[in-house]
């Protein structure tokens, strides 16, 4: 299990940095930036130059990737119900992602912004969950059809 966790962590680091970088470029473009900035100006201003801000951003993106990839290992626990796995995964990802998002300067730490972040997180989580659920059902139906045809 340790080996699998290490492999997942490396995958999380790479995917987190990649996704974080792509999203930062997209958001910079949408905001009409003429030069690259890894995050909001308030975040970048906390550092001695944009290089340091980019390095810290990359570390935060890597940690976010690790949270989500290691969190997905919950679904490999076969003796748990799907409800238990989902609730544990939701809690791991929310409470792992929340402090990283705060550190990344994505929202200020106050009740209104925290509530807004939580609502957005839950909406995105439910949408991804439903997409995965539909995909899994289609895959199960396909396997069942193939099994019936082979009999």
UniProtKB/TrEMBL annotation:
Q: Where are the transmembrane segments?
A: 7-30, 50-75, 87-108, 114-136
* Protein keywords: Membrane, Transmembrane, Transmembrane helix
Q: Which Pfam families match?
A: DUF3021
Recorded protein name is Conserved hypothetical membrane spanning protein
Q: Which InterPro entries match?
A: DUF3021 (IPR021560)
Taxonomic lineage of this organism? Bacteria, Bacillati, Bacillota, Bacilli, Lactobacillales
